[in-house]
């Protein structure tokens, strides 16, 4: 499945999205545009709906009403198989918890999305090793996630998200467990992905220092979004 999106056309669009968890309304009319080639920071108070919006954009949660479109396709109208093909092929994820497979080594974890996309073992591991090296965790290749620190695991997770060169990278507090140097390294790799492959990077952060690397900010408050106009 390919969706061709011209420059200046949003790659992803949330339109008037509402979503409740039982009695709790997390999103109440959230609208947002995400463009190819940009790093977009989602900011806002705790509990305002940032992670929920990110999960909706990624097709992990389905809005109660409103729509999420990837190009001109409504995610809710896709079959489960189409949505998971999209998630596996076009999307990369860096989430805070439970992202690495504990039974696999760090190298195998990073190679996994390539293997799922059909790459041979040797080629997948060669490319995975390149990304571990870029994240400066090449020495952890043979270790399992349980044997590395939280910050090291987070960098392995970033390598795994970037290895397939996805069209959209979703990241929830991707620098949360990192010191400032490693946080900077991760942000520079996100910016490189946006500039080199035209990826859109959507990241949730509380840190102004991290948001300063973004091209644009959107503030989520009480389940609604105020987004900065794109500069083009
Ligand atoms: N699985 C869930 N079940 C019930 N309520 C939830 C669930 N996930 C989120 N919520 C509620 O929805 C609202 C929005 O949560 P969300 O995690 O999107 O906020 P956030 O802006 O990402 O917060 P934080 O910055 O603290 O991570 C909150 O009131 C939260 O308690």
Commentary on this structure:
This protein is an alpha/beta fold. It has a single domain (12-226), classed as Rossmann fold, CATH 3.40.50.300. The chain is built from 7 helices and 10 strands. The chain has helices spanning 50-57, 80-90, 106-116, 121-134, 150-162, 180-197, 208-211; strands at 10-21, 24-35, 39-43, 65-70, 73-74, 91-94, 168-172, 200-204, 216-221, 224-227. The strands form 2 sheets. It has a 6-stranded mixed beta sheet, with helices on both faces. Helix 3 (106-116) packs across helix 4, helix 3 (106-116) packs parallel to helix 5 and helix 4 (121-134) packs across helix 5. The protein starts with 9 loop residues before the first strand and ends in a 5-residue tail after the last strand. Mean pLDDT is 92; it is low at 1-7. Adenosine-5'-triphosphate binds at residues 21, 24, 26, 44, 46-52.
